[in-house]
Amino acid sequence: MIPALVESLSTEQCAIYDAMQVCADQRNVNVYLVGGAVRDWLMGHPAGDLDFTVEADGIVFARALSDVHGGEVVAHERFRTATWTFNGLHTDITTARSESYPRPAALPVVAPAPIGVDLMRRDFTINAMAVRLRDGALLDPFDGQADLRRKVIRALHARSFIDDPTRILRAARYSARFGFEIEPETRVWIDAGLPWLKDLSGERVKYDIEHIFAIPKAPDALILLRAWSVFAALGIAVPEPATLLARFDAIRSHLSTWDDARIVPYGHRIAAGWGALIYNLGQMSASRWLELIPYTSEVNEAIVSLGVLSTLAASLFDGRSSHQSALLRPFSAMALLFMWLYDPAPAKRTAAFNEWHTWRGLRPLTTGDDLRARGVRPGPIYGKVLAMLRDAWLDGDVTTDDEESALLTRLLSQ
Ligand code: CTP
Q1: Which residues of the chain have pLDDT under 50?
Q2: Whose CA is nearest to atom 24 of ligand 1?
Q3: How far is the CA of 48 from the centre of ligand 1 (A)?
Q4: Identical fold between 1-150 and 151-230
């Protein structure tokens, strides 16, 4: 392995690299480290997931590896690629291939090809570099190294964004992530791809937008996309740049509070990105996103409820806690999370947090069994009495067990 490359790889990644190299030698196959890991190494960044390309069948190669080392192989027949999960790492192993696009924004038709052709099918010069494992040679046919030095994102050809408009989303992500400029000709080519964005499947749009949410500079990438009229091309309005910046700031600074109380899985952070794009933008935009993107049912439901939540008058949240809780009770935790993060009215934000964190979990000490023991005949009265006791706790009318018991006696005597 190239000594300098070792420094950008973790111990586990080095083990994967070595395993690939041994397998390549045994099978007499050319194997290349490609894409992001090469770029990251040249930039002096730690590598993310490793991608390898083999001048042979990627699935067969991945299975040969797992036969020797273990781990799991998931094969993607259409492109003859495989993901090998080993030692907790996901490694993509692709068959070196050419791509042709039957129509704009469609998935490509692929055929096995040498690495030189494979590098030509890629998105940007900085991602079209490869290291040959056999001898450590760096293949850089489009001078991606110069673009790394100049800090520019450059596509390989004029049709790049027409063939694959997801690359428009990727260009904004890399530009924001690395602080790189879009090379002027590439910027012109991006415009040519805009009309084809609406032909992408929702699954592909979702994948690339969620990758944007995952980077620290997410709002910068979204602001770029907005300036390029990407959302207009999708027929969707998005918030002003200042609002986007403030909302992603809210995610960064406040989501940890939400974390502290109950575990917020990574999925909630991604969902918070969708909330940042959609909150307060009106029914049209929300409906358009819902039509386009195959959300999980949890996110779907939260987005649907934003129409109501974002338009509730702030004055409704001045009164008794029990009334506020009753208003918010029908909404899911995720919908409340969006309201808490993004609503401009402080009273609404506080109420959303209280409902999620405290109010909805609150129960009186009295149970149905206690009511039965006191001779109350079972029926709707049970729910009513227990709700009144709960509301009394919420509003601070009851603060001790004895006070609850006294209130119960009073209610039953009525
Ligand atoms: N690629 C492409 N066009 C796309 C998606 C991917 O040409 N629409 C190519 C690029 O060469 C890219 C490689 O496939 O480098 C792997 O894609 P991906 O895993 O998404 O990116 P990484 O290279 O791993 O970079 P990162 O995850 O850091 O963005």
Answers
A1: 261
A2: 36
A3: 11
A4: no
* Domain residue ranges in the chain: 1-150, 151-230, 236-361, 368-413
CB atoms within 10 A of CB 4: 11
Closest CA to ligand 1's atom 16:
35
Please give the CATH architecture assigned to the domain spanning 151-230.
Orthogonal Bundle (1.10)
Ligand 1 proximal residues by C-beta, below 6 Å? 35-36, 48-49, 51, 122-123, 127-128, 164, 166-167, 170
Give nearest CA residue, ligand 1 atom 3. 123
pLDDT for 232-291, tens place per residue?
Answer: 999 999 999 999 999 999 988 877 665 554 555 667 888 999 999 999 998 899 999 999
Q: 214 C-alpha to center of ligand 1: Å?
A: 15
What kind of architecture, by CATH, is found in domain 1-150?
2-Layer Sandwich (3.30)
Closest atom of ligand 1 to CA, residue 121? 7
Q: Which atom of ligand 1 is nearest to the CA of 40?
A: 28
- pLDDT value, residue 6: 77
Distance of CA 123 from the midpoint of ligand 1 (Å) = 7
What is the rounded CA–CA span in Å between residue 322 and residue 355?
A: 10
Residues 6+ apart with CB under 8 A from 144: 39, 42, 124, 125, 126, 127, 128, 129
pLDDT tens per residue, range 204-213:
999 999 999 9
Atom of ligand 1 nearest to the CA of 48: 28
The predicted structure's pLDDT at residue 395:
96
